[in-house]
Amino acid sequence: MPQFFLNKRLILLLVSIIFLVALIGFSLKDRKELTWSEQFVKDTTGFVQFLFHQPAQLVAGFFENVQDMKNTYKENKLLKARLEEYVMLEAEVQTLKKENEELRAVLDKKESLRDFIPIEATVIGRNPDRWQEMVIINKGEQQGIKKDMAVITPSGLIGKIQHASQFTSTVQLLSAIDRQNRISAYVQGKDGSVFGLIEGYDDKRQALLFKQIPFDAKIEKKQLVLTSGLGGIFPKGLPIGEVEEVVPDEYGLTKMAYVKPAANFYDVDEVIVVKRKIDAVQEGETK
Amino acid sequence: MRKLFLPFLAVVFFVSESLFVELWPKHIWDEQYVFVPRFLLIFLLFVTIYVTRTQGIVYGVIFGLLYDVVYTEILGVYMFAFPLIAYVAAKVMKWFHTYLVVTCFLSMVFISVLEFYVYGIQLLIGKTTMSFEQFYSYRLLPTLLVNALFLLVFSYPLKQRLVKMHEREE
C-alpha cells in the first residue's frame, strides 16, 4: 500500500484530476468577466488569428466567387422580378417612417426600444470542437462591446456576447445549449402579437424552441418571430426566424413552436453587434 | 531561428483548427454532421514520437491551456487531456517501431479517445443532451474521416520535417 502512494506519477495524476475538476467548476460558475490573464491570452491569440485569417478568407472568397458566378444569371432574373415590388415597398416604408416620426414628436417620445447603435465586427475564429457553438470576433470592450449584447447578421439574430475582453469577444450562438439563454420574443400575428420565450435549440430539427406561448394564441406557419426588447438587453424588432410548427408543450398548459432561424449559424463572416440606444442614453446620464 | 520552428508550427496547427471549421464548406453535407479537426493533437503525437516525450508533454500543457482559454472557455479539459495523451502515447510507442503507419493508426485511436473523453465531460456538466448513437454517427465517424484525410496528406511531410529537425539538434 505505501508503495502505491509513493508512486510519483500516480500522485501527479491524482493531483491534476483534482485540479481539473476545480478548474471546470471555476469556469462553469456564472462569471460576469474573464480574469485579466484570460483576457490577455485571448487578445494576443486574437491578433495571431487575425493575421492568419485574412489571407485564408481571401482564398476561400475566391472560390466562393467562382461558385457565385454560376448562379448569377438565375439570381439576376429573380432579382429583377423582385425589384418592382421593392420600389413600392420602399415608398411605403418611407411614408410610414415619416408618419412614425411625426407621431413620436407629437407624443414627445424620443427614445424607442427599437433604436440601436451597430458595431460591425469580423469573425476571426470559431470553436473547433463545436460542443459549445461559439465564434470569436475582433471587437472588444475598447470598442464598446459588453456582455450579453445581441449579435446579428443582415438576415437575423445569431447570438449574444458571452464574454468581452479588451480587443476581442466571444459570441455564443443561438444554437448553443444553455439553460440560461432565454430571449424574450414575439410573433407578428394578424390580430396582435403573441409573446413568448426562445429557450433552447433542437439539434435534430435545426430549429429554435419558442416556448411559453399562451394556449389560446393563434400562431400559424411562416409567421415571423422577432425579439421583443422586453428582456432588457436586446432591442426590439430583430428578426429571429419564422414559425415552422406549433405543438402543445410537455405539460399541455402552453404551446411551443419550432422556429426556423432566419440567419445561418454555420456561415457567419461579418456580424453586427447591437448596442441599444436607450441604454447608451442612460449611461450618458449617469456619468 | 531554428529554435522557433517548432513553436511556430504549433501555432499554425492551433490556428488551423479554427480556420478549418470556419472555411469548411457548409452545404455539401447535412449540417447535422460535425467534423472536428484534431490537427493539434496529431501534431502533439508526432512531436512526442519523433522529437522527444518531454517536448510533447510541454507543448500539450501550453496549447491545451490555450485551447481552453481561447476556444472552449471551459478551463482544464484539454490542458489535462493533451499532456496525458502524449505521455501514454510515448509509453505505448515503446512496444512498436516508429513506422509512419503505426503513428497514424495510433493518432486515430487517440483522436477517438479524446472525442469520448470530451463527450463524457460535456455530458457530466450538462452542456449537451446528445445521445450516444447520435454522438457516434454524427460526430465520431465524420471526425475520424476528416482527420484520416488530413493524416493521408500531411503525415509524411510532417514526419520528415520533425525527424530532420531532431537530427539537426542532436
From TrEMBL, chain A:
<feature type="coiled-coil region">
    <location>
        <begin position="79"/>
        <end position="113"/>
    </location>
</feature>
<dbReference type="InterPro" id="IPR042177">
    <property type="entry name" value="Cell/Rod_1"/>
</dbReference>
<keyword id="KW-0175">Coiled coil</keyword>
<dbReference type="InterPro" id="IPR042175">
    <property type="entry name" value="Cell/Rod_MreC_2"/>
</dbReference>
<dbReference type="GO" id="GO:0008360">
    <property type="term" value="P:regulation of cell shape"/>
</dbReference>
<protein>
    <recommendedName>
        <fullName>Cell shape-determining protein MreC</fullName>
    </recommendedName>
</protein>
<comment type="function">
    <text>Involved in formation and maintenance of cell shape.</text>
</comment>
<dbReference type="InterPro" id="IPR055342">
    <property type="entry name" value="MreC_beta-barrel_core"/>
</dbReference>
<dbReference type="GO" id="GO:0005886">
    <property type="term" value="C:plasma membrane"/>
</dbReference>
<dbReference type="Pfam" id="PF04085">
    <property type="entry name" value="MreC"/>
</dbReference>
<keyword id="KW-0133">Cell shape</keyword>
<dbReference type="InterPro" id="IPR007221">
    <property type="entry name" value="MreC"/>
</dbReference>
<comment type="similarity">
    <text>Belongs to the MreC family.</text>
</comment>
<feature type="domain" description="Rod shape-determining protein MreC beta-barrel core">
    <location>
        <begin position="123"/>
        <end position="275"/>
    </location>
</feature>
From TrEMBL, chain B:
<keyword id="KW-1003">Cell membrane</keyword>
<feature type="transmembrane region" description="Helical">
    <location>
        <begin position="34"/>
        <end position="53"/>
    </location>
</feature>
<dbReference type="Pfam" id="PF04093">
    <property type="entry name" value="MreD"/>
</dbReference>
<dbReference type="GO" id="GO:0005886">
    <property type="term" value="C:plasma membrane"/>
</dbReference>
<keyword id="KW-0472">Membrane</keyword>
<feature type="transmembrane region" description="Helical">
    <location>
        <begin position="96"/>
        <end position="119"/>
    </location>
</feature>
<keyword id="KW-1133">Transmembrane helix</keyword>
<dbReference type="InterPro" id="IPR007227">
    <property type="entry name" value="Cell_shape_determining_MreD"/>
</dbReference>
<feature type="transmembrane region" description="Helical">
    <location>
        <begin position="140"/>
        <end position="158"/>
    </location>
</feature>
<feature type="transmembrane region" description="Helical">
    <location>
        <begin position="65"/>
        <end position="90"/>
    </location>
</feature>
<keyword id="KW-0133">Cell shape</keyword>
<protein>
    <submittedName>
        <fullName>Rod shape-determining protein MreD</fullName>
    </submittedName>
</protein>
<dbReference type="GO" id="GO:0008360">
    <property type="term" value="P:regulation of cell shape"/>
</dbReference>
<comment type="similarity">
    <text>Belongs to the MreD family.</text>
</comment>
<keyword id="KW-0812">Transmembrane</keyword>
